[in-house]
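Anyone able to model this chain together with adenosine-5'-diphosphate-glucose?
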Amino acid sequence: MPLDPRSRIRDIVSKMFGAETARAPVNMPGIGRLVIVSNRVATVAQMKTNPGGLAVAMAAALREHPAMWFGSSGEFVDHTVEAPKIQNEGPLIRALLDLPRSDYDRYYAGFSNGALWPLFHYRVGVVNFSHDDYAAYLRVNEEFARHLIPLLQPDDVIWIHDYQLIPLAGMLRARGVTQKIGFFLHIPFPAPEILTTLPVHEEIARALAQYDLVGFQTQTDQASFTDYIQRERREQAYAEGWVQAFGRRFRVGTFPISIDPEIVAARARRMAGGTRNKQLRDSLSGRKLMIGVDRLDYTKGLDRRFQAIEHLFEEHEEHRRGVVVLQIAPPTRGDVPEYRRVRAELNALIGHINGQFGDADILPIRYLNRQFSQDILFGYFRISRAALVTPLRDGMNLVAKEFVACQDPDDPGIPVLSRFAGAAKQMDAAMIVNPFDVRGMAGALHRVLEMPIEERRERHQSLLESIRGYDIHRWRDAFISELTRTYEELIPSREEETVDLFSLAGAHH
Ligand code: ADQ
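re: yes, here you go
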């Protein structure tokens, strides 16, 4: 007999998390259904093997609270579809939308990843803007709005995620949606001088103003946005995140995304004694392991990271035979030309370093272009002396936090962390580096390799405390409660805005 759907989702969640670590119910009393909207929806299988931060946060919320997760299915059609495919799983509804093939590339590889992604990561030179791509971006967002509206209920709390869907709230509002709508930006928000290089910067900022609450990863990102409002728009940003701009009153806030450190630690401990870890440990023959795990992306600073390793081997002969660098970097977005270029450059650089510093019995760098399950990664983290987390710019970087949670507190490894990762703001006990300073990074790597155990323990303790103090559950609850509070405070002014709209309409007729 098939399992009751509610117990099936529980089963999935408890397998993911281990029943022994199941958390207290999510603290969302009195709010309606949670509607999450993101470009893609994680499948059941993905949530089990590689749940990203969003999937983990949502999976925990779904245990106790009715929710819908709406996004693209990853499948394309040549005609317009009637409705999204609905999958019910206990309290979770997945709504999966097939998108028009004709627009998808311009929306995804074009405007989202060819223009917004590099621009928001401060890489103006890589931005490839086209008005046609932007038009397709708007059309795909319209498609999201059109299909989402019939599925909405009056007391839904709508939480839209990331740069692919910035215009969605405005499109929902234009079609009469009055529910709470929040937005969370997973990537950095650029300083106004960078943002204004985008021909449609004003449309993007106006689109953000249609939300009730806009959440950023760091105070710096939030300040970049309010700077834009004040300097470029000459409009107002007030205390406590209130903003008055584009004829709207709304709020901004900082919500650094995180992980569930207890669950991550439990998974790392479980893997530590397994065959996979034993094979890796045996292959090290006593050498120290440094690990990097990144999507293969030019923002992750892999080229400078390996230049730093080259420098380390040049300066410190003892590390040539004393250290193994394991870099896991699955290729992504191969349809964007810049990603293909980065991949080719790294192949050459790593080949060069191994050629120069390797020996018949030893290769200092092991470079793997594929996905691993998170369990395997977490096991590897636990036996590493250092993590290499050196992005040139990163919204947060969850690998840095996962690495800390995976360590054995008696003999912990330490993250070497870029000051330009959002995570650096809460992780000052890490070895903080400037990823543009190759020699400085090489020095930091040497320091971590030589660091006395007492110092490693102290730093690790402090890092773990800060992650525990603001975990993924706190992130979600903080955002939802701020959105709810903001919406309630906004009700009177929203009524005025509506009155204004009516009087405007009256003036026209
Ligand atoms: P990403 O750029 O994808 O995310 P990151 O936060 O480091 O960056 O990683 C997301 C997750 O993917 C992590 O949980 C990690 O374990 C996993 N992962 C990475 N490489 C993997 C591999 N080779 N195999 C398996 N799993 C892998 C964006 C922003 C970040 C922000 C997150 C969340 O760019 O800055 O932290 O969203 O908001």
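The longest helix spans residues 472-508.
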